[in-house]
Amino acid sequence: MENREKLLEIKNLKQYFNLGKPNQVKAIDGVSFDIYKGETLGLVGESGCGKSTTGRTIIRLYDATDGEVIFKGENVHGRKSKKELMKFNRSMQMIFQDPYASLNPRMKVADVIAEGIDIHGLAKSKSERMERVHELLETVGLTKEHANRYPHEFSGGQRQRIGIARALAVQPEFIIADEPISALDVSIQAQVVNLMKKLQREKGLTYLFIAHDLSMVKYISDRIGVMYFGKLVELAPADELYNNPLHPYTKSLLSAIPLPDPEFERTRRRITYDPAVHNYADNEEVTMREVKPGHFVYCSEQEFQQYKAKNKS
Amino acid sequence: MSNILEVKDLNISFHTFAGEVQAIRGVNFDLKKGETLAIVGESGSGKSVTTKAIMRLLPPGNSEIKSGEILFDGKDLTKLNDRQMQKIRGKDISMIFQDPMTSLNPTMTVGKQIMEPLIKHQKLSKAEAQERVIELLKLVGIANPEARFKQYPHQFSGGMRQRVVIAIALACNPKVLIADEPTTALDVTIQAQILELMKDLQEKIDTSIIFITHDLGVVANVADRVAVMYGGKIVEIGTVDEVFYNPQHPYTWGLISSMPSLDAKDEDLYAIPGTPPNLLYPPKGDAFAPRNEYAMKIDLEQQPPMFKVSDSHYAATWLLHPDAPKVEPPAAVKKRMKKLPGSNK
């Protein structure tokens, strides 16, 4: 773990909306984590917990209120010239949740995909541009005949493939996938997840996979972060998080997932999370602590000792 | 157990500019008193159209019930006029819609919206209705109901709104409750609460529920029986144990194997290839045949009838024909078959 290259470091990231106004919202309130090269980091939590905002702030769709996002040693949110910004935009791309809303209905698929190629001048001639588009379509499992059609002619799963092709067009290293499968049917979800895994193997991509479907996240992610009310409460390798959740919120979240197994469902017991159980004192330092190598929990010193003790037994 | 609702050979078409879309092609099922029947299937498989037909909420202009019967209480719902149907809708049969954000009227207080069916159907006075609304709000677990009564939907969170929608649906103690993806728009923790609430209420008022969803986890949680729909037909129907632990139709196999199990890793997920059929041009044979790796020649030519697996379990696949070759279901399904209670004989 230690010797792996950090692609992205997020340090104490804060994103407040309506700053200073009475309706100020702390969408992200001091989140820190790293993403290693070539891994998939899953981010889960309920709606409004700040997981999408985290993704959008990382890619600079929002300006961070405070904190740093360091991508390959450079601060994303620092002042940037147009040229630097272009370079940055090329290396980080996003796949959006709703394949119906994220494609311009008035553009042909070829132009949707090639927009990034045009902006970054990646094709020298028209024929080279089309060649790239055809190549990309084939990569995501569509055919080149699809290039001249409009988005409305495609099903949800096919549109999501177009969204993926668009993200790949500029050859990024890092892709933020914001609930890429939640708008799709079960049988199509598997197709898209398999495609994303295949592309990761072939192109060495790094993913930040934001979702609320925990079983899919478990399947695709190497590590998973759990967010609650703008804070990261637990971060651990995927198996470790499922087998040995420590934070009470993680436990309640895991106990709420229905599994496709009637026998299991009959005996399932749901745990509810009450934030009052922590009972933190005002001056107590509550922060992310490493309970086990790679397994971080947001806790106070006292809880930290308890978690550690529990782990040993 | 007696049947409260029977759907017999239902055929529904939509007339569009492109031609006739045969959305429902011969659907048969019955709903027993007090049970929960889950209908699963992907978008366009006809699950919502079926339930809208039961509620008679299909758009009057371009939809047509071509044939079939929906028997409720001895009456054929397809034959009723609008007036007669209005007496049943919301009273004996009511519905919970998918999106709690859009299914409430934003300009009316929550209390007023729950009062509506009570005044309309049960002819309660305003004061009586108000009292009953407070009761209902308590029943669905909304704290401080007196204050909540006067609030508007935007003052409620998603989960709380869905509770309000459930309160409206349950206001008249319906015999049949249709829930069309009631938890799809909600978070898992809220979903778990709503599912628990529905089960709890079902016990209290002994209603039958038709539960539409595409989440197999939710099905395993709530259903007594499951109907799997594909291409406008029910392809498999049985008790929840039979469908999950002894599935027979290749489409059900595909659905079950495409869900990641919590211990699977590093191997590709099983994905059903291709896309669902276009019912503008309904296939001649089994609608699933083009995506089915087990398809035989006959699948492309003739639609399979419902074969009986057990008294409660039926599936429409030629694989169950006595002359069909024995096939091995996918590994994920075989693992499940071992779990069927009573299968270790």
TrEMBL record, chain A:
Q: Which GO terms describe its biological process?
A: peptide transport; transmembrane transport
Q: Which InterPro entries match?
A: AAA+_ATPase, ABC_transp_ATP-bind, ABC_transporter-like_ATP-bd, ABC_transporter-like_CS, Oligopep_ABC_C, P-loop_NTPase
The answer to whether keyword Nucleotide-binding applies is: yes
The UniProt keyword set, sorted, is:
ATP-binding, Nucleotide-binding, Transport
Gene Ontology molecular function, alphabetical = ATP binding; ATP hydrolysis activity
Kindly indicate whether the keyword ATP-binding belongs to this entry. yes
Q: Which Gene3D superfamilies match?
A: P-loop containing nucleotide triphosphate hydrolases
Q: Which residues form the ABC transporter domain?
A: 8-254
Q: Superkingdom of the source?
A: Bacteria
Pfam families named in the record: ABC_tran, oligo_HPY
Family, according to the entry, reads as follows: Belongs to the ABC transporter superfamily.
User: What name does this protein carry?
Assistant: Oligopeptide transport system ATP-binding protein
Its organism's taxonomic lineage begins at: Bacteria, Bacillati, Bacillota, Bacilli, Bacillales
From TrEMBL, chain B:
Kindly list the GO CC terms recorded for this protein: plasma membrane
Query: Where is the protein localized?
Result: Cell membrane
The UniProt entry, under SMART domains, shows: AAA (SM00382)
Q: How does it sit in the membrane?
A: Peripheral membrane protein
- What keywords are assigned to this protein? ATP-binding, Cell membrane, Membrane, Nucleotide-binding, Transport
Reading the lineage from the top rank, the first entry is Bacteria
Give start and end of each ABC transporter domain.
7-256
Q: Name one GO biological process term.
A: peptide transport
Q: Which PROSITE patterns match?
A: ABC_TRANSPORTER_1, ABC_TRANSPORTER_2
> Which molecular-function annotations from GO does this UniProt entry contain?
ATP binding; ATP hydrolysis activity
Q: Name the NCBIfam families on file.
A: oligo_HPY (TIGR01727)
Q: Show the PANTHER family listed in the entry.
A: DIPEPTIDE TRANSPORT ATP-BINDING PROTEIN DPPD, OLIGOPEPTIDE TRANSPORT ATP-BINDING PROTEIN APPD
Which family would the database say this protein is a member of? Belongs to the ABC transporter superfamily.
Name by which UniProt lists this protein? Oligopeptide transport system ATP-binding protein
The organism encoding this protein is Mesobacillus foraminis
